[in-house]
Design brief:
The protein is α/β, with parallel strands linked by helices and about 300 residues long. It has eleven helices and nine strands. The radius of gyration is 19 Å and the shape is globular.
């Protein structure tokens, strides 16, 4: 059976942009003794910022927040796109180089926001993939970066997983032209987002159950995709596109959300501008990462700048 690997996009800005101004407040991070850097923001603005600190690199940040009691981690990213800053190192490549080695001896399974489609579904699946990719403006390098991640994961003894979409899924995502019509309806991105959410959550929960049932010594399960589906505190109105609640239940309340943000992308992203931590992007630099605690078990890590 032949399958074709296709990169999937997690967030569709046209669907969620209207929600950015209505983003609810996340639960406040509990006060603690951790050292917190002082932001150059005065008065009430500084008081409103979430708790944050710096780490020398991404690996050190992950080692700090992914503690031994964490059972599942949902990693999210702000996707690289051809209309975003060029010459910037992607979150995906940094995850491969800096995160995987830190988690490698604990990590059993890595669920990726990538799909396999079956040729038994006919040309509908291939056509749907082409239509989706044409609108999402992903750089060609993303596919090769995913391939490197899969190879590194396997070499580290981690089982990678990808989503498998049914023929019915493809028909709903990208309906064929009606009889007698020459053009097909638009891609249904709401259906696409729902299918991605379903598959990422399902595979990760099944991986937890499998490792528990077989007494595995490695018990950490991770997902990697867009910074929408992993959200513990989703924007009102799109909670159905987050698998976090279900995976948290499967993990016995030991789920952690970690979003990796490239600062050059975040600074020009309309949705990110609505986040309470957005002013902290001014603190991003080339020689450190920012670790921002948005709420209990919910972190943003602002990656090093690729440019001075």
């Amino acid at each position: 059976m032949r399958v074709v690997l296709a990169v999937v996009v997690a967030a569709v800005a046209a669907i969620v942009a209207a929600c950015s101004s209505d983003r609810p407040s996340r639960p406040a991070a509990a006060a603690g003794d951790d050292a917190t850097a002082a932001a150059p923001v005065a008065g009430d603005a500084a008081a409103a910022l979430p708790r944050w600190s710096t780490a020398p690199d991404l690996g050190a940040a992950i080692a700090r927040i992914v503690t031994d009691d964490v059972r599942a981690v949902g990693f999210g990213e702000l996707h690289a796109r051809t209309d975003r800053a060029a010459g910037v190192r992607s979150a995906l490549s940094r995850f491969t180089d800096d995160v995987l080695p830190v988690l490698g001896d604990r990590l059993s399974d890595l669920v990726l926001e990538t799909w396999l489609f079956d040729r038994d579904c006919g040309e509908q699946a291939a056509t749907a993939t082409t239509r989706v990719e044409a609108t999402m403006r992903r750089p060609a390098s993303t596919k090769s970066e995913l391939g490197v991640l899969v190879e590194r994961a396997r070499a580290a003894g981690v089982q990678p997983h990808v989503m498998r979409l049914s023929c019915d899924d493809w028909t709903r995502i990208a309906p064929p032209p009606p009889p007698g019509a020459t053009t097909a309806p638009d891609v249904d991105y709401e259906v696409l987002l729902g299918v991605i959410t379903r598959e990422l959550g399902r595979i990760a929960a099944e991986a937890i159950a499998y490792r528990d049932g077989h007494g595995a010594t490695r018990r950490l399960v991770a997902t990697y995709g867009g910074a929408l589906h992993n959200d513990l505190y989703p924007i009102e109105g799109i909670a159905d596109w987050s698998f976090a609640a279900g995976l948290d239940a499967a993990a016995g309340g030991h789920y952690l959300e970690v979003d990796l943000y490239v600062p050059e992308y975040a600074e020009v992203d309309d949705l990110t501008r609505g986040e309470a931590w957005f002013p902290l992007l001014a603190e991003a630099g080339a020689d450190h990462v920012l670790v921002i605690e948005r709420g209990p078990r919910s972190y943003v890590i602002v990656l090093p700048r690729s440019r001075p």
